[in-house]
Automatic annotation (TrEMBL):
GO molecular function, one term: ATPase-coupled polar amino acid-transporter activity
Keywords from the named record: Amino-acid transport, ATP-binding, Cell membrane, Membrane, Nucleotide-binding, Transport
Organism encoding this protein: Streptomyces globosus
Protein name: ABC-type polar-amino-acid transporter
Superkingdom in the source lineage: Bacteria
Amino acid sequence: MSGVSVTKDAKGAAEAADDLVVLSNVNKHFGALHVLQDVNLSIARGEVVVVIGPSGSGKSTLCRTINRLETVDSGTITIDGKELPSEGRELARLRADVGMVFQSFNLFAHKTVLQNVMLGQMKVRKTDQATAAKKAQALLDRVGVGTQADKYPAQLSGGQQQRVAIARALAMDPKVILFDEPTSALDPEMINEVLEVMQQLAAEGMTMVVVTHEMGFARSAANRVVFMADGKIVEEAQPEQFFSNPRSDRAKDFLSKILHH
C-alpha cells in the first residue's frame, strides 16, 4: 500500500465509478411468482462474477434482465452509467455492449460459421464486409475453431458451436459478456473446451457474468461468487471464502448436496 490514505467514502465513490453493471432494487414477477426480489448487485469493470444456486432461484432471469431480454417490474439496471432503456434504438445500441452466450447456442443454421460471427458487426456496428470477415476469422482462430469457418452450425459439435457463439459475442467488442448456463447442453467431454475459452477471457480481463453449475470454473476463474436462492441474493464472497466457509445455512445446504454426492 502507498502512504496515501483514502477515506472510506472516497474509496467507495472510486469503486462505484468503476462499476460497469449496477442492479438496484430489481424486482421481477412471472404471474404470481416473485422471481427476483429486491436484487442489488454491482459488477466492476474486469470482474468475473459467477452466479450459482438451486434451480428456480432466479439466476437465469437475473442474467437476462441485464440486457433486457426480460423486463423488470421495478428497480433500475445501469450499464456503464447509462440506465437500460425500455425499447427502441437506444436499447439496441446499449445491448450491443452486452454480449450474451446462451445455453442453446442460437446460431443461424442457414449461415456459415464465419457469416454468423460477421452478421452483428455488419448490422449493428455497420462494419464493412471485408473488415467484418477478417475480424470474424481472427476470433474463430482465438476460440479454436478457425478451421471450421466455412461449415454450417449443424456440421459442428456442441462444444464447437458454443465456441462460435462466444466468438460472435466477442465480435461486438462488448463491455460485458453474460453467460447463461453455457455448458449445460453439452456432452461432458465438450464442457472443458468451452470452459477453457472462458478461463482465457477471464484471464484477459473481460467483464463476465456467468450463471453455471460448473463449480470448478467458479473456484478458479471467479473474482466473486454470488449465491442465489428463492429470488434473492443470499450470499456473495470470494470463491475461496464461499466454498470453504459459506456463511448462510442455505449455501451450506446447497454445497453439501453438490460437492459431496
